[in-house]
Design goal:
With about 350 residues, this protein is α/β, with parallel strands linked by helices. The chain has two domains: about 160 residues, Rossmann fold, CATH 3.40.50.720; about 160 residues, 2-Layer Sandwich (Dihydrodipicolinate Reductase, domain 2). The chain is built from eleven helices and 13 strands. The strands form two sheets. It has a seven-stranded mixed β-sheet. Strands 2-1-3-4-6-5 form a six-stranded parallel β-sheet, with helices on both faces. A hairpin with a 4-residue loop joins β12 and β13.
């Protein structure tokens, strides 16, 4: 059994990790930390885990947690990964970081968008951005796994076939994305309170959302040329899910049939990525609670633009499920192990 440590186990991505790993046939949570609930049983914080996960929560101690684990998941906001990664490298234990600290190749880009100093520039060469459907071959042997962000996962998988073929104008991409409130984390704020979000939808982070440079960096790798996007996220009154709609100008007169074919070819061997039947458009409800991705591609004949719609569960494929997918690859397990559950509907 793989012994797993989870730092930040009581946040939403942490509890989702715990849910998934509790049923994983080859992994067992060995130690869990929490900032706010030290000394409590996990099931006291989340009663839905009663008699399923009753472990006591400990204070974060990277050295001790590494010693008790074969791999450590870091389920904390940005700015907390460097010391954990240093300890992981010292003990030769892989770290899977669900935050943003190691998603970039250039610390200056990170600091410009996240407004904190990055004290681990020397560690960046050890890190890999790990989105299995894009760079699966880079993951085995990686000591620092940078787990992709939720919005970027939906966008990158949605646009990859077009950028790899060079069929769209790389600087015409407009992304309209909508997320459930769990993406904002468990901490209560005025902006995510019931009264503020119920019966409402609102845009936020216009022109400066922190996922923008992550999206651009990864799309540029796929296109093999610099890509600049307009990315506008929205908050919608639902718990889980991301729906992203991407629009771009086609460089040539590509048919709908050709567009459908390249998506079918690109993802036909991918267990988690599904191109929907013609005329069927993704819904977040259809991927709820799962690691699956639904995609549809449609040509606008009138404007010679292409529209791509993708849906994911932000806490699973957008965070914890993908992190376990990366763990499976790290340890030579079947990639789908422990995360092949179907979506929940209704």
């Amino acid at each position: 059994m793989i012994k797993v440590g989870i730092i930040g186990a009581t946040g939403y991505t942490g509890v989702e990790l715990t849910r998934i790993l509790s049923a994983h046939p080859k992994a067992q949570v060995s130690v869990m930390s929490s900032h706010s609930y030290v000394g409590k049983r996990f099931s006291e914080v989340y009663p839905d885990k009663t008699d399923l996960v009753d472990d006591y929560l400990v204070a974060q101690d990277a050295k001790a947690m590494m010693a008790q684990s074969d791999v450590v998941f870091l389920a904390l906001p940005h700015g907390h990964a460097v010391s954990v990664v240093r300890e992981g490298l010292a003990q030769k234990k892989p770290v899977i970081d669900l935050g943003a600290d190691f998603r970039f190749q250039d610390k200056d880009v990170y600091e410009a968008w996240y407004h904190v100093d990055h004290t681990g520039a020397d560690l960046m060469p050890s890190a890999r951005y790990c989105l299995p459907e894009i760079n699966r071959e880079d993951i085995p042997g990686t000591m620092v796994v940078a787990n992709p962000g939720c919005y970027p996962t939906s966008v990158i998988l949605g646009l990859a076939p077009l950028l790899e073929r060079g069929w769209i104008d790389e600087n015409s991409i407009i992304i309209d994305a909508k997320s459930g409130v769990s993406g904002a984390g468990r901490k209560v704020t005025e902006a995510t309170s019931f009264v503020e979000i119920n019966d409402a939808i609102k845009a936020y982070g216009l022109t400066n959302h922190r996922h923008t440079p992550e999206i651009e960096e990864q799309l540029s790798k796929l296109a093999k040329t610099p890509v600049m996007v307009n990315f506008t996220p929205h908050l919608v009154p639902m718990t889980r899910g991301i729906l992203s709609t991407m629009v771009a100008n086609l460089k040539e007169d590509v048919s709908q049939e050709a567009l459908t074919e390249i998506y079918q070819q690109r993802y036909e061997k991918e267990y988690f990525v599904h191109l929907l039947a013609p005329g069927v458009y993704p819904s977040t409800k259809w991927v709820y609670g799962s690691n699956h991705v639904h995609i549809q591609v449609k040509k606008d004949e009138r404007t010679n633009r292409v529209l791509v719609v993708s849906a994911i569960d932000n806490l699973v494929k957008g965070a914890s499920g993908q992190a376990v997918q990366n763990m499976n690859l790290l340890f030579g397990l079947p990639e789908t192990m422990g995360i092949d559950m179907p979506p929940m509907f209704p």
